[in-house]
Amino acid sequence: MKKVLFVITKSNWGGAQRYVFDLATNLPKENWEAKAVLGGNGLLKQKLEESGIQTIQIPHLERDINFKKEITSFFSLIKIFIKERPNIIHLNSSKAGAIGAVAAIFSKMWLKLWTKNYGLKTIFTVHGWAFNEARTFRQKTGIYLSQWLTSFLCDNTIIISRHDYRQAMGMPLIKSGGFALIPLGIPENNLKYLSKKNAEKELVISPGEKGIRAGTIAEFTKNKGLDYLLDAINALKHPGLKLAIIGDGEEKARIEKRVLDENLQDRVKILGFVPQASKYIKAFDIFVLPSLKEGLPYTILEAMNAGVPIVASSVGGIPDLIEHEKSGILTIPANSESIKDALEKITASKQIRNKFARASRLRAKEKFPFNAMLSRTIDLYQ
């Protein structure tokens, strides 16, 4: 039996955390032992332990940069790697990737001195290149060098979108075979949705209310582009269109204040964090994701599988998921006018909404099956 050690910076519940959970809990138990190393004490840690996956916590591993804490985390990872002696170290998120890749090199050298024929493979999954975020040139350069070094030091780097894969191909001194394009998928047993009526009832968003409800599930950060969505709703003169936002995060209080200041509370409902949010997705007539930066978002995959028509910005891996005007509408990033035009078009015709919903559900089943993602990842492990 081989051991896989998943490493991730934060233990809250986001796309990278879900990816770790799905892989760790679906690896064939007769061949693989999975453990997770993570920072914090969030929902990922809880869900892994409930599923029988052992977790190892690093108190100082967190997203914000702190040189002293990074050094402490680095030596903690070396200690863990030497103690656990994994066959595979699977790194996720930028910080855990950078620190973990260097720690793995030192651990491998040490273990080879004491363990005959010891083999260790290091895998890094890119959940959207962090240097694509809106930052200063200096910050972007530093992040690019860090992520390049992580990929250089690892045996393989998994890319989840064609956009990020094209960027990876331009990285110097890394063989193209070092990158593997493996799109996401969702396990069939996780595709459980409440009916529209029950979802509306449990979310307390006026069941049976006339009109059309757009909705999104997103972390309240600037990368999610929620201000542009609010601009579009404000400008859209459609009395029957409502917006519901599920999520939490650092920008939540500011967005709530903006809704009040602009008297949008009758049209915009902020629901906050909702456990297992995806099961309520059928409460939405339209799913909207106005992100400025993405990898390959699970929320859109969930909306596709649920048969909810989608309007989303053309960034990262979103164009991999949505075929413009065939299975949804792609909008210009950071452009409220583009979002407004898309919402006007999709709200005007139930026939168009139904057409997009059928096409995207079929595309999710055919192009993004979880078993393909799992088997191709295991192939890299071998």
What does this structure look like?
With 382 residues, the chain is an alpha/beta fold. The protein has 2 domains: 2-181, Rossmann fold (3-Layer(aba) Sandwich), CATH 3.40.50.2000; 189-367, Glycogen Phosphorylase B (Rossmann fold), CATH 3.40.50. The protein has 14 helices and 13 strands. The strands form 2 sheets. Strands 3-2-1-4-5-6-7 form a 7-stranded parallel β-sheet, with helices on both faces.
Secondary structure: elements and pairs:
Blueprint: E1 2-10, H1 15-26, E2 32-39, H2 43-50, E3 54-57, H3 67-84, E4 88-92, H4 94-114, E5 121-126, H5 137-153, E6 156-159, H6 162-169, E7 179-181, H7 196-203, E8 212-217, H8 226-235, E9 241-246, H9 252-261, E10 268-272, E11 286-289, H10 298-306, E12 310-313, H11 318-321, E13 329-331, H12 336-347, H13 350-367, H14 370-381
Parallel strand pairs: 1-2, 1-4, 2-3, 4-5, 5-6, 6-7, 8-9, 8-11, 9-10, 11-12, 12-13
Short description:
The chain is an alpha/beta fold and 382 residues long. It is built from 14 helices and 13 strands.
Features:
6-stranded parallel β-sheet; 2 domains; Rossmann fold; about 45% helix
- Contiguous uncertain segments of 5+ residues: none
Most strands sheet: 7 strands, parallel
C-alpha-based Rg, rounded: 21 Å
Which strand order do you get reading across the main beta sheet?
Answer: 3-2-1-4-5-6-7
Which word captures the global form?
Answer: elongated
The total beta strand count reads 13
